Amino acid sequence: MKAAIELNKTPRAKPSRSGLNYFVKTFGCQMNEHDSERIAGLFEYDGMLKANSLEQADVLFINTCTIRENADDKLYGTLGQLKKWKSENSNRKLLVGGCAAQKDKELVRERAPWVDVVIGTHNLTNIVNLLNQSEDWGPITEVIDEIESLPTDAPSIRESEVSAWLTIQIGCNNSCTFCIVPSVRGPEISRRPSDIVNEATAMIDSGVKEITLLGQNVNSYGRDLKINGSSKPYFTELLTELNNVEGLKRIRFTSPHPKDFKPETLIAVNDLDKVANQIHMPLQSGSNKILRKMQRGYTQEKFLEKLNLAKDTIEDVSLTTDIIVGFPGETDVDFEETLKVIKESQFDAVYMFKFSPRPGTTANTMDDDFIEKEVIDSRFMKLKEIQTEISHVRYKRFIGTDQKLLVEKYSKKTNTFMSGKIDGGQTVHIPSQDVSIGDFLDVRIIEATPFALTAEII
Ligand code: SAH
Ligand code: SF4
Ligand code: F3S
Q1: Which fold, 4-142?
Q2: Confidence (pTM)
């Protein structure tokens, strides 16, 4: 694993924890994975080295998620297990950050008094400072409501040598009624295009081949920057600027919002050679009644119109989506509408979630309309069954075709296989003989399951 410090901004002048080891455990989405890379960067700047396991760690950071209730349950379960880890060595430090920490604040330590530092999402770059304070004065909680510093101001130690996250925007200004993200991540703030391009260039210099742009609503990127005095989004222009970065092989982005997708962005995705022909269009529900209750800002018809435009504009586009099953008030008829859109859309993959009421959200107050667990479970199974068949058909379309594969890592189970992704975002396994991490290979697809492909080098 290669360690690359991209930016040299840091809260401390001198490394102070040389010889100690850290471990970061991450729950949740790509934003959290990327924040964890920043935490690792700050720890390494402070002199620590990455531990291979929890047992070898002196400092442990748990980066939490709270998108669904089971994420909270998992956190408190994990903190319970970590009481023993802490008690094994009195010098060990346990740090908790991320979205659940932002939401629960003091409650984290009330439920787990053995935690040394609780830090929210808005002040991540203060972590080493808080660790110092906890050593001097005991346990500390710092969860603030206003954004103090962008996490992008911190150095970063990436998990992958060749594929990197690049935050273009933090927070979200939407108000989907099921979603807790705006309350734990704050309002939408875009980074300057020049900062983004500079970070991309630094990444390429350190060996990165593929970049995934991150934001909760990437197609509204730049509205708040008023570039050239305009509050028009600057996303298509950003893609074009990044497409010109020399040495970069591939650009992906997530997540766009269907309501803000512009035809010119679809054209750019098709025309810009480095931008992958892959679009994630999170539908959530196919029923107009439910979409309205979710405040998603589009109808089934509008969604399908945009999806069809994507299919017509982008050559061999790979499409994915998110669905929430069992939103309050979802009837069998509403669910059938979702299945109808799923069948018509022919997504490569669907990320499926059972509705989970989140504190502070509007949907949490719709308890009169909550759907029974058994009904949600059976709808979920039905959707899964239908989509697995569709995914298999979609994945089989690649058999016999030639694709460009970026090799990212060894397969988990065996060293005789490696894996990576092709342009459409599908995972591909390939025998590891004569293949190295970072290779950008011409391969032929020979096998397909509903979830992955197998290839051979041409
Ligand atoms: N900004 C992204 C979504 C981020 S959250 C977007 O608008 O698409 C990722 C996914 O988690 C959502 O798309 C939704 O499908 C799911 N999700 C969010 N809140 C949820 C909840 N309360 N219950 C179940 N699923 C939820
Ligand atoms: Fe949540 Fe909606 Fe914002 Fe996505 S767009 S993060 S679902 S509020
Ligand atoms: Fe992501 Fe979970 Fe936070 S999905 S933004 S880590 S609540």
Answers
A1: Rossmann fold (3.40.50)
A2: 0.94
